[in-house]
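At this stage, I put together a protein sequence along with its fold in token form, as given directly below:
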Amino acid sequence: MKLKYTFLLAFTLPLLIWIMADTKKKVEKKYTENHELKTVNPSLDWKGTPLDENGRFVNLFHPFESSFGDLLKWQTSKNPYKEAKENETRQLAVNFDPSIIQGKEDYLIWLGHATYLFRVQGKTFLTDPILMDNTFLKRDSPLPFPIEEMPHLDYILLSHNHRDHCDKASLKFLAEHHPQAKILTALGVSKVITSWTNPQEIEEAGWFQQYTKPDADIKITFVPSRHWSRRWLWDDNKSLWGGFYIQTEEKSIYFMGDSGKGPHFEDIKNTLGSPDYCLMGVGAFRPEWFMHQAHISPTYAIEAFNTLGGRFFIPMHYGTFDLSDEPRMEPWDILIENRDAIQGYLIEPVIGQNLLFPNLD
């Protein structure tokens, strides 16, 4: 059996053990939350973040239904995009002006994959930092500046514990150089990262819960996605996954994290409103029959964006790491081909470039 790309080592081997367990069994749901946080109830019958009968997190609408046979089929089948992958020479564009992070104005800068650096209301945020190569992941796109030049950070947002979103080396570096930064993440993630980040403050939230902050002008809500979690062979779904919705009086930013298809996009809109900026995952989607439960395709990302009613569509989760069957830049090509279907503005996420617009009127 041939090994396909980094995805196999980083994610699929643990997934194999999980799938060999009976993941299709009937789930009797329980519910949990962080009782110290405010919950923005999406409905009158909202009970909290669901758990299965073993106390492990589950998706709101879709159980994970892949089988070992599905995994074997993917790993042993021919990749119809192999030649296109091998012939892909394009890389993500990089254009960085250091004055952006040295000034005092708001900005939103893509650092590659799911890592965004942004400032709103004078506070600086970093999402899902993976700032260097590790055992499993090698960058195909450069950072726009050395990590030693990272500006002062107030918050680090971690969407879930997968290794392309929650990187030990990056978090240890940030803990050493930005110990003041508060980490906002999902229920259960602190057990993974505490030994790397001590003494940083960590706050965990369930779905539709708002983090506590000294900044009354910023609301940060942890929102659902359709995904799963695992770092080792024994910790499947012991920690939660999701995205972030950041709101100020002037603007709102939705960071999707990783997600498959689902009605949760509509729930987010109905609960928190339509976001101005939607940072949407569009990569690691082929083969779709296997990946759709964890990563939406570019075309479905458009549908999800339209459901959210967003203003600016900013794609991510492509071009930096080789995680699946599609060529590096195919997700962007598909978005361009279908841009007329986008009920908003498609923004090319050039690495290092400020993607915020000063006037949203």
